[in-house]
Design a protein that fits this description.
It is built from 17 helices and 23 strands. With 560 residues, the chain is of the alpha+beta class. The chain has a single domain, classed as Glutamine Phosphoribosylpyrophosphate, subunit 1, domain 1 (4-Layer Sandwich), CATH 3.60.20.
Length: 560
């Protein structure tokens, strides 16, 4: 029942504008926006990912009676092979999981951690100047302890139904028999010449291959199925990672792997347009920033208000948000109604904010610190699934930059997630909340989201995206379109991106909307925006489940 909707007349992007901090690399070399959008309609189950092979793997598991958790595991294991520039067993992820059996929502944090030997000066050179971005990325110090393997194991233990041996089969077959590199992967490989190909193992594995096979990955999948996810944190797999990373100035030890664990967090939820919107809290900045934007404009979701609210929300994000196990943060005080009213009063229909400052929530004792805007994590993917039992998963997975650290071990790439920390620990004797600390998890922008009906308590929208700190705007824009503007999911995902992270508006192309914002006095940058949205809309009254994959990537939706 897969449908392809045509959208004609999408022209070439004009007047490109680049800001150095935010255009390091895309998760895939930007392949442009397709004139088709992949979607499907079902009434039992649906899987949507940014890669066709991963979606097919998830769909087959759902067809065999698997849960959303089972399907997500199968999809992620395939993505580590076919979309290695974006995620894999060497990275980390966040999960929002809705269990229909007891109507519960679980938030799981599989974010990578900093080595125990790391310090706040971790990315400072001998002259106390910060390392350059790619100087740090390609260094062993950028690699955090991978969380994805433990997260998959925990997910299966909690919510899985099908044996792991069955779940690994799609990835196992691809690893043994080989797969043809996708258009997105080939463009990413070409774009990364000078980085990925400087590592001998990575170069031999990826380049000049019509078909890619991975026997090491296949062997590890079999061990995972037989012995569980703990194998990834013990020798020889952990030792292989330690040796590969420490050859490039890393400081990993076995104790780093021994001490890693998945953390169950409290989901962060709030109301927008009479719907309950839930996403991932800190160390992700996704939920708090998105929900603050939505609450600020709930009374009047105009484009101008959305842009101005984004400036305020990102000011709070950049100042406060970090790993709450290491830094005291205001957390959900940023969503408290009186604070929202106070911040909303700063938004005027006749004024354009040029330098939004962080606020001070009621009941929060100010701590002197300094803001950190952050660079743009970009090697990311999103999985949206609902099964026939009504369970739903929204999972965003990453290795940070395209191809992560470019270091391979055990048949998969390792993340460069630690470059999501501030390279400098502070300024003028004030510390950055998101500074490096031993065992700490770096701040993220991943925004895996599930929206619920306040009438039935059931999911109505499952959504998330790739795209670094732009993820927040990508997801927020679609929630506004679907819940407030009553736009179809296809039209919402296909709509040109418009967002703000504190500076000029970033837009994918000029539209009537951007024209009206310019007339109002907003400054606009037209730039390629390589998102990776995947979404599912559930209409329980009509018994229709609709899945849509971002036309800016190569993914598909499959449902029944």
């Amino acid at each position: 029942m897969r449908n392809i909707f045509l959208f004609i007349g999408i022209g070439l992007l004009a007047s490109l504008s680049y800001a150095s901090d935010f255009h390091r690399a895309s998760p895939e070399k930007y392949i442009g926006k397709s004139t088709t959008i992949e979607s499907d309609i079902g009434n039992e189950y649906m899987a949507v990912t940014s890669d066709p092979e991963a979606t097919r793997a998830a769909y087959e598991i759902l067809s065999d009676g698997g849960t959303a958790a089972d399907a997500a595991i199968a999809a992620q294991l395939v993505l580590g092979l076919t979309e290695p520039q974006s995620s894999g067993l060497g990275g980390g992820a966040f999960i929002m999981y809705y269990n229909a059996l007891d109507n519960s929502l679980t938030a799981l944090d599989g974010r990578e951690t900093a080595p125990l030997a790391s310090t706040p000066n971790y990315f400072l050179k001998n002259n106390m100047e910060p390392m350059g971005f790619f100087e740090a990325v390609l260094d062993g110090r950028s690699v955090g302890i991978p969380g994805t393997p433990a997260l998959l194991g925990d997910l299966h233990e909690r919510f899985g139904k099908i044996n792991i041996k069955t779940l690994i089969e799609p990835a196992l077959n691809l690893a043994i028999n080989g797969f043809v590199p996708s258009k997105g992967l080939l463009k990413s490989l070409d774009n990364d010449i000078g980085r990925l190909d400087q590592n001998k193992t990575s170069k031999e594995y990826f380049y000049n291959k019509k078909i890619i096979k991975n026997n090491k990955y296949a062997s590890i999948l079999k061990n995972f199925a037989n012995k569980g996810s703990s194998i990834f944190y013990k020798s020889p797999l952990s030792t292989n990672i330690i040796n590969s990373v420490n050859k490039k100035n890393g400081v990993l030890i076995q104790k780093d792997f021994d001490s890693y664990s998945v953390i169950e967090r409290k989901p962060v939820c709030n109301i927008f347009q009479k719907h309950k919107v839930c996403s991932m809290g800190e160390p992700s900045s996704g939920a708090l920033t998105m929900l603050q934007i939505l609450k600020l404009i709930d009374h009047d979701p105009t484009w101008h208000n959305y842009i101005e609210a984004s400036k305020l929300a990102f000011a709070d994000r950049n100042y406060y948000m970090a790993d709450p196990d290491f830094v005291k943060t205001p957390g959900e005080l940023l969503l408290e109604n009186n604070y929202i009213l106070k911040r909303r009063s700063m938004i005027s229909d006749n004024n354009i904010m040029t330098n939004a400052k962080h606020g001070t929530p009621f009941g929060w004792k100010e701590i002197k610190q300094t803001k950190y805007n952050g660079l743009n994590e970009s090697g990311t993917t999103h999985i949206s699934i609902i099964d026939k039992y009504g369970n739903a998963i929204s999972m965003t997975s990453t290795i940070e930059n395209a191809f992560g650290s470019r270091i391979m071990a055990n048949g998969y790439l390792l993340n460069n997630e630690l470059t999501d920390f501030s390279f400098t620990p502070g300024k003028n004797n004030n510390l950055v909340a998101n500074r490096v600390e031993a065992g700490k998890r770096p701040r993220s922008s991943m925004t895996p989201t599930i929206v619920f009906s306040t009438l039935t308590g059931k999911p109505v929208l499952i959504i998330g995206s790739a795209g670094g700190s732009r993820i927040i705007g990508y997801v927020t824009q679609r929630i506004i379109d679907v819940l407030y503007n009553n736009v179809s999911l296809e039209d919402a995902i296909n709509a040109p991106h418009i967002l703000n992270r504190g500076g000029n508006i970033e837009a994918e192309e000029e539209t009537n909307i951007t024209d009206s914002l310019i007339q109002k006095g907003h400054l606009l940058d037209i730039t390629p925006l390589a998102s990776g949205l995947t979404a599912i809309h559930i209409d329980s009254e009509k018994n229709i489940i609709k899945g849509v994959s971002d036309p800016r990537r190569i993914g598909i939706a499959l449902g029944k």
